[in-house]
Design brief:
mainly alpha
Length: 216
C-alpha cells in the first residue's frame, strides 16, 4: 500500500512538472510562467494542508480507507493545478472524485450516508445561489468541486474545508490587491484554495468542526 501511495504522489508530481501555464499571480498580465518554478510550492502547500489535518484528526492507515484518501488527495492536486492553468476544472477530475466518493460510501462506514448526502449540498447549493445572483462570482467548476468533495468528506468536514479555502483565497486576493497585482474587477481561480481546504478536511475537517462548535 505504501508503494501504491508513493506512486500516486509521483504521478501527480510528474504531471505537474510536465506543464507550463499561467499561475494565478500572472493570469492578468498574460505572462506565461514555467510550472517548474512553482510546482514544488503548490505541492508543498497541498501536502502541508493534508498533514496539518492529519495532525488534528485520526489518520487512516488501513485498506481501503488509506488508498481512497491518498487517491482523493492526488486528484485534488491535479484539479487545483488545472484551475491555476486554465481557470477551470475539467469534468474528468469531478468524475474521478465522484467515483472515489461513491466507493467510499460503499466501503467506509464513516461518515454516515446521510452526512455524505448533506455534504453534497451544504456548500455547493449556497455557491450555486451566489453564482445565479452574481454572475461570474463563482465558477461552475468550484460548485461541482464542493459537491463531490462534500460527498466524500461528509457535511461537517465539507463546511470546514470550504471555509478554510475561502479564507485562504480571500487572504491571497487581499494581498494581491494591496500589492497592485490584482484589479478590483479581475478574477482569480478559487479552485486551488478550495482544494487546499479539502486536503486539510480529509482528516482535520471533523475535529475542527467539533472543536469549534463544541459538538461530537
Amino acid at each position: 500500500m505504501a508503494l501504491f501511495q508513493f506512486g500516486m504522489f509521483a504521478a501527480a508530481f510528474t504531471d505537474l512538472r510536465s506543464h507550463s501555464f499561467p499561475l494565478p499571480l500572472t493570469l492578468f498580465s498574460g505572462r506565461k510562467v514555467k510550472m517548474k518554478k512553482y510546482d514544488g510550492i503548490y505541492l508543498v502547500l497541498m501536502l502541508s494542508a493534508f498533514f496539518a489535518g492529519g495532525g488534528m484528526g485520526s489518520v487512516s492507515v488501513i485498506f481501503p480507507a488509506a488508498v481512497l484518501d491518498i487517491s482523493f488527495l492526488t486528484v485534488l492536486i491535479l484539479a487545483g493545478r488545472q484551475d491555476m492553468r486554465d481557470m477551470k476544472i475539467a469534468d474528468q477530475w469531478q468524475l474521478l472524485m465522484l467515483g472515489l466518493a461513491a466507493t467510499a460510501c460503499l466501503l467506509e462506514p464513516e461518515p454516515l450516508f446521510f452526512s455524505r448526502a448533506l455534504g453534497f449540498f451544504c456548500v455547493s447549493a449556497p455557491f450555486l445561489v451566489i453564482a445565479l445572483a452574481v454572475p461570474g462570482a463563482i465558477g461552475g467548476g468550484d460548485i461541482k468541486l464542493t459537491a463531490v468533495c462534500g460527498l466524500f468528506l461528509g457535511w461537517k468536514a465539507a463546511v470546514v474545508s470550504a471555509a478554510a479555502g475561502i479564507v485562504l483565497g480571500g487572504a491571497w486576493g487581499l494581498c494581491m490587491l494591496a500589492l497592485g497585482k490584482l484589479g478590483r474587477k479581475e478574477h482569480f481561480p478559487m479552485g486551488p484554495f478550495l482544494c487546499m481546504g479539502m486536503a486539510f478536511g480529509i482528516y482535520g475537517g471533523n475535529p475542527v468542526f467539533e472543536w469549534f462548535f463544541h459538538v461530537q
